[in-house]
């Protein structure tokens, strides 16, 4: 199976449950990786290589499922399952950003339906993350002066105003601006503004950056 295909991570300390869930999900054509604890998942799961979602049991022997979910900061869609499916647990899981909450035992058809929706969301998250990485790669090609020019241009400054702000000749600013457009692969000012806004949103939305 393609290593970049979406993957379903299963974290459950019950070996029989892990095996049964993995068998069902593989039968639907999905790639599966299983873990017996939150710590094992944190240590070994690769959340960057492909679109992914997490099927997570709340009752785990080390770090709780809810604590793990909060730690992920919604970087992957989480479907919470639990044999202790009380209302309070469901509310806590949904408040923490769970895509869904399913009490055990889970009906196969219900699980697969919820899983398909989670994987679709995972694909969107993965595509957005890849786009942001590409934008930052383009930004890293800019010289410090080109970055200054870009930021003023996207703020609406005209070439003459940029030149005055930076103490440079307008002809020089035009050259810098052309290089910015080329390196950022922007076909228009509107596209350049969109790229700059996405980069800013990525930095403000992720407190770990």
Task: Describe what you observe in this structure.
GO terms for molecular function: DNA binding. With 209 residues, this protein is of the alpha/beta class. It is built from 9 helices and 5 strands. The chain has 2 domains: 7-128, Rossmann fold, CATH 3.40.50; 141-205, Arc Repressor Mutant, subunit A, CATH 1.10.10. It is 57% helix and 12% strand. It has a 5-stranded parallel sheet, with helices on both faces. Helix 6 packs across helix 8. The two termini are 33 Å apart.
Compile the SSE list and pairings.
Blueprint (H helix, E strand, L loop, with lengths): L6 E5 L3 H13 L3 E5 L2 H7 L7 E6 L7 H8 L5 E5 L4 H9 L4 E4 L4 H32 L4 H11 L4 H8 L3 H14 L5 H17 L4
Parallel strand pairs: 1-2, 1-3, 3-4, 4-5
Pfam families: GerE, Response_reg
Protein name: Two component transcriptional regulator, LuxR family
Keywords: DNA-binding, Phosphoprotein, Transcription, Transcription regulation
Sum this structure up briefly.
Residues 135-200 form the HTH luxR-type domain. The protein is of the alpha/beta class and 209 residues long. Helices cover 57% and strands 12% of the residues.
């Amino acid at each position: 199976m393609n290593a970049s295909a979406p993957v379903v991570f299963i974290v459950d300390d019950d070996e029989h449950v892990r095996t049964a869930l993995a068998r069902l999900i593989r039968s639907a054509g999905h790639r599966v990786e299983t873990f017996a604890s939150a710590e094992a998942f944190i240590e070994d799961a690769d959340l960057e290589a492909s679109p992914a979602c997490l099927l997570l049991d709340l009752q785990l022997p080390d770090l709780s499922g809810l604590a793990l979910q909060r730690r992920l900061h919604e970087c992957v869609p989480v479907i919470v399952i639990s044999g202790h499916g009380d209302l309070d647990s469901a509310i806590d899981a949904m408040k923490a950003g769970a895509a869904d909450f399913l009490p055990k035992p889970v009906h196969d058809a219900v699980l697969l339906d919820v899983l398909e929706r989670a994987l679709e969301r995972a694909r969107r998250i993965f595509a957005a993350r890849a786009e942001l990485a590409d934008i930052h790669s383009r930004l890293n090609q800019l010289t410090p002066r080109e970055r200054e020019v870009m930021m003023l241009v996207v703020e609406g400054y005209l070439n003459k105003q940029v030149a005055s702000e930076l103490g440079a000749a307008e002809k020089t600013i035009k050259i810098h601006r052309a290089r910015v457009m080329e390196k950022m692969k922007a076909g228009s000012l509107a596209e350049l503004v969109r790229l700059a806004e996405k980069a800013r949103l990525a930095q403000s939305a992720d407190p770990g950056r």
